Large ribosomal subunit protein bL9c (Cuscuta campestris), 204 residues
Amino acid sequence: MMAYAQIGRNVIRHQLSASERGIQHPLFYAVQGVRHRKLEVILTNSIDKLGKAGDTVKVAPGFFRNHLMPKLLAVPNIHKYRYLLKDQSKIYQPKEDAEVNVVSQTNEDKMKEYQTAANRLDRTMVVLRKFIKVDYEIREPVTKEEIIAEVARQLSVSIEPENVHLPSPLSTLGEFEVPLRLPRSIPLPEGKLQWALKVKIRRK
């Protein structure tokens, strides 16, 4: 922005010195003498309904002379200004993509996540609702895959089929403890011999 301001000041300074010598500046000659033609200018700032900073637009000579140029909002579209603005944009153009420092997760952090997930599995009950056909027998038995899907949905914990020990599907209403096979590196809570998931099947 400081570069754009300096450009405007230089243009005005040259014009004043030329006027004192009785010489008409070519830019003002074009502005004042050819009123039916529009001027091509380069915007130094974004202007609503006109364009963004750096755009080349056509404007009425009077609008440029009375509004844009005094406020340093635009410069004539001639080679030296195009070249200067191009260089300035390279210097002052903000970076769109900020650098992101990626910190790799340590083994200790991973173990904390595993421990938190294991405790959630052990302390929380997964509830499923099923239709029954006779007494407490359900129409469609609950499989290992269905339990894994419900754990992900209800507890937001992802487990693999090998983590669930379910020899046969659950076929009746009631509460069950399904053994979990988690890595031995995850310490068990005091007094527990193995990890287990509580599953409750209710009537739908």
Summary: The longest strand covers residues 195-203. The chain has a mean pLDDT of 75. The CA atoms of residues 10 and 16 lie 10 Å apart.
